[in-house]
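Section 3.1: Structural characterization of target chains.
Under the original work plan, the team committed to producing a structural model for every single-chain target entering the pipeline before any wet-lab resources were allocated. The record below documents one such target. The sequence was received from the expression subgroup and is listed exactly as submitted; it comprises 517 residues.
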Amino acid sequence: MHPRCHLSTLRLSLFLLLFSLFPLSLLARPFILVLSQDELKDAQNDDASPLDSDSSWDDDDFDGTHVKSDDELDPGSWRRLFEPATTSTSDDSTLGSYYAAVDKMISASTNGDTRIMEEAAADIEKSANTEGDPHARSVLGFLYGIGMMRERNKAKALLNHYFAAEGGNAQSMMALAYTYLRQNMYEKAVKLYAELAEIAVKSFLMSKDSPVIETIRIHNGAEENKEALKKSRGEDDDDFQISEYQAQKGNADAMYKMGLFYYFGLRGLRRDHAKALMWFLKAVDKGEYRSMELLGEIYARGAGVERNYTKALEWLSLASKQGLYSAYNGMGYLYVKGYGVEKKNYTKAKEYFEEAAENEDAGGHYSLGVMYLKGIGVKKDVKIACKCFIVAANAGQPKAFYQLAKMFHTGVGLKKNLPRATALYKLVAEQGPWSSLSRSALESYLKGDVGKAFLLYSRMAELGYEIAQSNAAWILDKYGERSMCMGESGLCTDAERHQRAHSLWWLSSEQGNCEGL
């Protein structure tokens, strides 16, 4: 057993997983998951495990065939209308009419232009029904679901989302999974959330943990949440402006901070990988070694540059020599997959993961857990894998939540429990690339574009994001007609607006927020 995965401080009879940063329950926040001895199954380490018939547990637990960009993981996303594209994807030309229609719809929401909105809805419907475009079907499902320029029809919404999900649209998969979850249809919900969580995991950094970009609740009760909004003003943020000034004056720490702001889209800033790359390179030139690890991530992911695993390994190696132990996890990943090296080398990968874990890096524990789970370079041992995942989860490693969800899902290592598996998968899935829409919604709200903010929050509300549900409901109550709420045949009537607000508050309350009731 690897010493760092030994839970001497966590008695096997309790296994408390403290998810204070990761609200788990659909009914209350925060949530503490207590695993009893009964739930800790006597794991079998033979080859007759359900894992062997589940392709999602293969070598691809180390993030798939290659490190993909968000645009590749989330096709048809509205993100590219707000952020620079990270890569050039093959569907850019074929989706031209789809994006033109969505852009028209978003623009119409700004000033409540019902004529333009109707044109956009008609264009979307044509792309969905005539051309069979799955992404257009997803938006059409959204329009039917909330009753915007189309009659409110849950059956048509569900049908369009179903076909969109079958065509690979992740937003419709989220909408369907949430619909099934609300109806306690766990067999269907868990299957979709599992697939979405797997996509989300592929968007996470391979070496270190990404900062959790939480959706900001724009209200505090009946009042605007001024304190939270003050910290999310993008380029108008005081901290950003100070850091930018210091970076321009040659301050290495400020350069690194600027790179983080742009790479992750922190403090309400739009993500811009090209600018992030520029600032990280400048920071390295000034001796700021933390930037080396992020440069490794950028080259491995092809974020703003051409993907180059050799350069990724070089930067991660430099970072590890500076005592950034999470970089060892990224190096181990490259050796597991055989990227940027002559061939796969599980022995060296394990050594790197152990180095990270021995220095209390949660990612190292996670990666060791995967190796023991599948017997990659080590003797298969599900018990050790489970312990490694629990250590990593207690340190807040989101990929570990994903593995624990799969254990609850399959009954391997933990007693099968579909409600818990579904909740954990949902937790991870909501951190996927489609969550970036919350940044655009917040940016629109801070710039006074309430109509656009309401539209974007409404889209996220349909996907099951509780804070988006309460934000959209609050905008309706606070701004009334100025919310630019679009109804079935024009701007919302008072009745439509009140009905929609009530529905959104109800959805939010089901997930633990009772402010609107």
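The first strand starts at residue 16 and ends at 19.
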